[in-house]
C-alpha cells in the first residue's frame, strides 16, 4: 500500500493532439514543481517534451480506424477504448501511491464512473476557455429545448457573463444535429457536473463575467478554477528548430512589422482559399510570414499531431509567381514553424490565427493582436470571445461559398497592422498581455486558483484518511 510519507500522486490523461497535450504537460509540471506531487501522464502519442524525473509517462495505443473517420469520433473512440487499460494502470498505481486526482480532458468523460468506483477524485481540465465551459454546461438543456438545427435559433444564446453567441458560431460538431459527433459532444456535456472540479486554461481578466458567474454558482456543482494561461514554457520540444530560417528572416525586419499566418497543428485551407489568402497578402503590401499547408477542403488536414503530416508539397498550392512577387517582404514556410518563438519575436506585429486556444494564449502572453480566422472545433466561439468580448482581434468575413476573398484579406490585415480600428485592438492586446502575466504571477488570480486547487486536493485526501508528510 501507499507509504504514508510519500507525496500524493496525480494521474493526468490527455487525449491525442498537441493542442491538448501541451497544456496538460504544463499543468503537471506546476503540480510537481510547485506543489511537490508526483505524477503520471497517460497519452496516446509520443510526448514532445523533456520532463522532470518525478513525472512518469505511459503511452496507450491509438485505436485503428478507417482513414476517413472524423477526428472527433476517432479521438472519442480511442479514449472510450482505453477504459480497461487505464483501470489496470490506476489499480497498479494505487498499490504504491496515494492518487489525489485523475485529471481528464473533455474527451475523457467516459472514464469517470470507472475512476469513481476506485474511490479516486476526478477532475476535468478544459484546454479552452470559460465561455466554452459555460456553453458546455448549458448544452444539455439547450439540446432538449431545441427543435431543428442550432444555427436556425431565432436569437443568439446569452450565457451569464458571456457575449451573445449565434447558432452558426457554435462548435462545429453541433452544426448537424443528426451527426455522430453532435451526439458525442452532447453526451460528454451531460457528464461535466459529475466531476469533483473543473480546471480551465483561461484567466479572470480575460473573461471576468463568466469567471464571476462560474465561481459563484454553488449548489453542489463542481468548483471551477481558471488557472491559465498555461503555455509551453521550455523550448526543448523535439519538433522545434531553434535555428529555423524564419527566425533569421524575422531578425532582419523592424519591430512589429510582420504579420504571422498559421492555422494550428492541423488546420488547412481549400485550394481556392489558399489562393485568395496569397493574393490578399500580396494586395495588403504588409510584411508576412506564412506557414503554408497542403490544401484540403475540410479545414483540418492534421492527424493527431505530426508537424509534417501531409505528403503533398504545400508550395504547389500557391498561385504562380506569388513567392517571386513577394520575396522582398514575405516568407513562406512549409507546414510548420516554431510558433512560440515567432510570436515572441520583436518583429512580429500581428497573427492571422485559426483561434485554437493554445495559439490564442501564446498570442496573448506576447501581446500580438489577432486576425481571427476560425476553421473547426470551438474556434468560431473563440473568435467571438476575442473580437466581441476581449476586443483583441478583428475577424475575417466570409464571402460567397464561405471563402474569404482576397480584398477582405488585404483589408483586415492592413487594418490590424496600421488602421484606426486596429489601433484599439493593438492597445487592447497590450492590456491583456499585462493581465495575462499578472494572472500567473505570485498572488495573481490563476496562481491563487492553483493554490486553492491544491488545498482542495489535500482536503479530499484528508477526508479519506491520508496522512500528509511534513512537506505539506
Ligand atoms: O506551425 C506550427 C503550428 C502550430 N504550432 C503549435 O501547435 C499548437 C497548436 O495548438 P492550438 O493553437 O490550440 O491549435 P490546435 O492544435 O488546432 O488545437 C486543438 O486544441 C485546442 C485546445 O483545446 C482547441 O482550441 C482547438 O480548436 C483544437 O483544434 C500551438 O502550441 C502552436 O504553437 C507550432 O509550433 N507551429
TrEMBL record:
Keywords: Glycosyltransferase, Transferase. This is Glycosyltransferase. Gene3D superfamilies: Glycogen Phosphorylase B. It comes from Dendrobium catenatum. Its EC number is 2.4.1.-. It comes from the Eukaryota. It holds the Pfam family UDPGT. It is an enzyme of class 2 (transferase). Belongs to the UDP-glycosyltransferase family. GO terms for molecular function: UDP-glycosyltransferase activity.
